[in-house]
Amino acid sequence: MPDERPPRYIDGVRSAIAAEMEADPDVVLIGVDVGEGGGVFGATRGLHERFGAERVIDTPIAEAGVLGAAVGAAMAGLRPVAEIMYMDFVSVCLDPIVNQAAKLRYMTGGGARIPLVFRTQTGGGRSSGAQHSQSLEGMLAHVPGLKVFLPSDPRDVHDLLRAAIRDDGPVVFVENRRLYNRRPADGPWEPLPPGRARVVRPGDDVTVIAWGRMVEEVARACDEQLTDVGVELIDLRTLVPLDLETLERSVRRTGRALVVHEATADFGPGAEIATRLSERLLYEIEGPIRRLGAVAAPTPYSPPLEALALPGPEAIAAAVRGLLED
Amino acid sequence: MSTDDHERLLGDLRTMVRIRAFEERVSRHFREGLIPGFVHVSIGQEAIAAGVCGALRDDDYITTTHRGHGHCLAKGLDADGMMAELFGRATGTCGGKGGSMHIADPSIGILGANGIVAAGLPIAVGAALAARRRGTDAVAVAFAGEGTVHSGPFHEALTLAVLWEAPVIFVIENNRFAEFTDSEAMWRGDPLVDRARGYGLHHSERIDGNDVEVVRATIEPLVAAARAGAGPALVEAMTYRVHGHYEGDAVPYRDEAEFERWRERDPIARATAALEAAGHGDAVAAIQADADAEIDAAVERGLAAPYPTAETLLEDVHA
């Protein structure tokens, strides 16, 4: 019997790639185990059979070479979706991302076109150890020329990935593996373009800004521990482009804001967002805009230690209550 | 030599002389402070650029290095735009945003000089993969120095090129120095051509990179083979870096006797001698005069051109 439940987050990944490959013969998928193996998480299962080995390209474990080749293929007319199996592995292939893809359009005065998606995933909290758990989106958003998308919703992952593939510039697309089995909530769905944040639940007391898995962690904190507080939860969706307008509108109304991310708090994206909002709203807010992220330590392996390292509902609820006391 | 051979050699000499004229002016104007930043010139290595790019079409791809002026000129980029780019002007190839190490024009297959050693090799492999995937018979050439071959992306690029049977030719210009270091001092194990064979390339050969006829004769069949689906090949072209790593490098590490020996093998002098002996002295003189006039005019126009306006600062960051 066919599964009639709404598609999971991971199904959204697969259906987005399939739809774009169907629409445009120049879209190719390339990476370690993306083809016959269907991806280590199963995200690309079936695509190899459907589109063939010429378009769903298995590679050796040679990330720097593969991403460099993806940059060249993009400049020569293809529209590659290149997979980096774990976000931690960007460290072995930063040059094609940071020095090549991000800069070539600018350095050539607009002469080079780099329609290229770097698909990767992150997700701490499952004892994957310090080299398979990092959220490095702040590092990539720091480099001018890269866009950075981080979907939290099973429907949004499809919309945002299709937009990423259609973008004529390089996009880092960050999935969260702990969301892969999520199915969407009931209710209507309004697709939004990249660069537009989504108000997930409205509220008047505090604005909480999150992305990726932290969106559901904040929702859980609200449902379980903050039922007496009017939290406005905003899913940022894309760090670059950054939708400051939606954030500003909300914070101007609530007067209080917290940014929650899985990335390390120190020098993290929350600092940038808090600063940008403070610069605009300093005399209209009730207190400092605060951040909550992972502690400044490599991600520990042992489950109780890792639970302490990452933001969870208790820490989020405590941070929101702290804001209300400012 | 047949008449065709003479015509081809005259054409390649013209390319070499234009490159030399360009590089000599770059060197001079850098010393005069007219070119900002830093520059690397390819004086003495012109035969490789001319012989290789002479065998390519407009729709073929090249990637090059920090020492890439010659390859770009030989692939068809105009000297005016390049010189203006080096002066940082709005009329430069990249609107003044790239500079010497980042000149590129994908519309004629120049996928970029590159400031990162070895970065161009995987890019060329990807372009070759795209050409095949899109059903064309275009090929890609990755120019790199011998200092590149120890790096990870070199190994990864050759591995991928062989796996994908990519129509790419790796042209390694062995100019004796990796920055300030004697390349032989950094070498153990098999010679490069043997290493390359180990990856499964269909052809790998060391040639005299200061003889443009040898370069041409080596590259043309490899390009034809790549177009026909033979897959990747590697050529190690032996040459000598006549100037320092960058302009201003006093080259205290250079062996003067070796330098003099290589000066006697200057690729332009050799081609000139062959053509003059065949009775083409007038044509050779005209090539020199044309090149001087062309590059002097490029300098003049470049220096007269405006700098980019402030409005362009944030243009082309994103698509």
UniProtKB/TrEMBL annotation, chain A:
Bilayer-crossing regions? none
Which keywords are on file for this protein?
A: Oxidoreductase, Thiamine pyrophosphate
Q: Which cofactor does it need?
A: thiamine diphosphate
Output the Gene Ontology terms for molecular function.
branched-chain 2-oxo acid dehydrogenase activity; magnesium ion binding
Please name the top-level EC class of this enzyme: oxidoreductase
EC number of this enzyme: 1.2.4.4
* Classification via SUPFAM superfamilies: Thiamin diphosphate-binding fold (THDP-binding), TK C-terminal domain-like
Q: Where is the Transketolase-like pyrimidine-binding domain?
A: 7-182
Give a yes or no for keyword Oxidoreductase in this entry.
Answer: yes
Q: Which PANTHER family match?
A: PYRUVATE DEHYDROGENASE E1 COMPONENT BETA SUBUNIT, PYRUVATE DEHYDROGENASE E1 COMPONENT SUBUNIT BETA
* Name by which UniProt lists this protein: Branched-chain alpha-keto acid dehydrogenase E1 component beta subunit
From TrEMBL, chain B:
- Record keywords: Oxidoreductase, Thiamine pyrophosphate
In alphabetical order, the GO MF annotations are:
magnesium ion binding; pyruvate dehydrogenase (acetyl-transferring) activity
Give cofactor(s), names only: thiamine diphosphate
Gene Ontology biological process: pyruvate decarboxylation to acetyl-CoA
Q: What class of enzyme is it?
A: oxidoreductase
The record, for InterPro entries, names: DH_E1, PDH_E1_Alpha_Subunit, THDP-binding
Highest taxon of source:
Bacteria
The Dehydrogenase E1 component domain sits at: 15-310
| E.C. number(s) listed in UniProt | 1.2.4.-
Protein name, as recorded = Acetoin dehydrogenase E1 component alpha-subunit
